[in-house]
Amino acid sequence: MINRERREKILEILQNSTEPISGLKLSRLLNVTRQIIVGDIAILRSGGHPIISSARGYLLQNIMGPKGCGRCIACKGKNLDSKELQDEMYAVVDNGGMISEMNLKSSIYGDIQIKMEIHSRRDAQQYLEQVRQTGFPFITVVTGGLHSLYVQTHNEEELRAIKKCLDELGLLDENCELE
Questions:
Q1: Which of 10, 20, 93, 96 has its CA 20 to 30 Å from the CA of residue 87?
Q2: CB neighbour class for 14 (10 Å; exposed up to 12, middle 13-18, buried from 19)
């Protein structure tokens, strides 16, 4: 299989997958090394393909499909602790959403964008564990807890359910919501 054909096959595999696929799995499927896959992914990205790397593997950014919804949801943490962030992430994934990124606006640091790619409770737990291991406070301390999550869902109903759940947890900041 030549390079171009292999890259086309990688795209085909990612387009047909609803979950991230690890570099190791792709390398086994295509009978090449993982390092070759890493290089192919870099070339595909430079060619404009929206391939995301997550803790669980590679996926195309628009996994929710053309009928999906994407919105920034403004949130305000009070405790700025891992339990609160976990509750926030679970509210999204338990209601059918995926967190693409977190955005913060700081008067000192400017706009901060953090890629997250949280699709499941497992992803949320892995993310929180990585943060805990650093020993640093959560980034939301920079903005006093204010932040927005870019959330993707399959439909508006899931988006409403997420917002309702965040509101019930006291984490939704409707006054600052970005559309």
A1: 20
A2: buried
Q: Tell me which DSSP letter residue 175 carries.
A: G
The tokens describing 89, both together, are: 């992430």
Rounded CA separation 140/28 (Å): 40
Report the candidate in 111, 112, 17 with the shortest Cα–Cα distance to residue 61.
Answer: 17
Q: Which residue has the tokens 């679970």?
A: 90
Contact between 32 and 6 under an 8 Å Cβ cutoff? The reply is yes
pLDDT beyond 80 at 18 = no
pLDDT over 90 (residue 33): yes
Say if residues 131 and 138 touch (Cβ distance below 8 Å).
Answer: yes
Q: Residue 149, CB half-sphere, CA atoms under 13 Å: how many?
A: 30
Q: In whole angstroms, what is the distance from residue 140 CA to residue 74 CA?
A: 12
Q: Which residues, listed in sequence order, are joined to residue 60 by a DSSP beta bridge?
A: 51
Mean pLDDT value of segment 149-166 = 89
- Of 172, 159, 18, which is closest to residue 97 (Cα–Cα)? 159
| Per-residue model confidence (pLDDT) at position 173 | 85
List, as one string, the DSSP characters of 106-159. ETTTEEEEEEEEE-SHHHHHHHHHHHHHHTPPPGGGGGTTEEEEEEEESSHHHH
Q: Is the pLDDT of residue 46 over 50?
A: yes
pLDDT of 177: 39
Higher pLDDT, 104 or 70: 104
